[in-house]
Write a structure and sequence with these properties.
The structure holds 2 protein chains of 2 kinds.
Chain A lengths: L8 E5 L4 E6 L7 E8 L6 E6 L4 E2 L4 E4 L5 E6 L8 E9 L11 E6 L1
Chain B lengths: L3 E4 L2 E4 L5 E7 L5 E7 L5 E9 L2 E4 L6 E3 L9 E3 L8 E8 L7 E3 L3 E5 L1
Parallel strand pairs in B: 2-11
Antiparallel strand pairs in B: 1-3, 3-8, 4-5, 4-9, 5-6, 7-8, 9-10, 9-11
Classes of the chains: A mainly beta, B mainly beta.
């Protein structure tokens, strides 16, 4: 699986958009990009995933660059409950291993 | 209510003892996983199983053992050979097939005393 690089931590004001970057410059053509988040001492929660096109659901939007070497998770209106560690993962097509790095600690502040 | 159930939530173990963490899922998922998480760190894969009666080592399998006798169950045994077992343990499951997401249980805290 391709390695991902994320900032260690980020701050965001409540009500503003949170933009979390992820670098995956060695991604191959059939690897998906996944985002999960983990609130302290809980199991990680699935947010969104994509292959090539930008994706949006009720939680977030995923923007993948045209060369697929990086992506951005967007939380459009961050709340205090969005404070968590966010993990960016790339995974081979039809491959069952999920590798989690250290993620980005997002601090949403009032 | 469908989901992944881990038990116990908190467990204390004396040094030299084996301990087994339970993981049960009623999602009819084929693949199941065990991860370890140390404070402030990401998740590391211990073992995973893609079908019943089959499992593979992850990155940190030493000192751990698993079994997969039933589709819904994937217990993890932390043996006395694991030198630093105090950690947060997470079980997960997934349907087979491309693009499917992985779902996690709520985790089990193991402390060696």
């Amino acid at each position: 699986d391709a390695k991902t690089t994320q900032p260690t931590s980020m701050d965001c004001a409540e009500g503003r958009a949170a933009n979390l970057p992820c670098n995956h410059s060695t991604i191959s053509g059939n690897e998906y990009v996944y985002w999960y988040r983990q609130i302290h001492s809980q199991g990680p929660q699935y947010i969104i995933h994509g292959l090539k096109n930008n994706e949006t659901n009720e939680m977030a939007s995923l923007i993948i660059t045209e060369d697929r070497k990086s992506s951005t998770l967007i939380l459009p209106h961050a709340t205090l409950r969005d404070t968590a560690v966010y993990y960016c993962i790339v995974r081979l097509y039809n491959f069952n291993k999920f590798y989690f790095g250290s993620g980005t600690k997002l601090n949403v502040k009032p | 209510d469908g989901g992944i159930t881990q038990s116990p939530k908190y467990l204390f173990r004396k040094e030299g003892q084996n301990v087994t963490l339970s993981c049960e899922q009623n999602l009819n998922h084929d693949a199941m996983y065990w991860y370890r998480q140390d404070p402030g760190q990401g998740l590391r894969l211990i073992y995973y199983s893609q079908i019943v009666n089959d499992f593979q080592k992850g990155d940190i399998a030493e000192g751990y053992s698993v079994s997969r006798e039933k589709k819904e169950s994937f217990p993890l045994t932390v043996t006395s050979a694991q030198k630093n077992p105090t950690a947060f343990y997470l079980c997960a499951s997934k349907e087979q097939g491309s693009g499917n997401t992985i779902y996690f249980g709520e985790g089990s805290w193991l402390t060696v005393v």
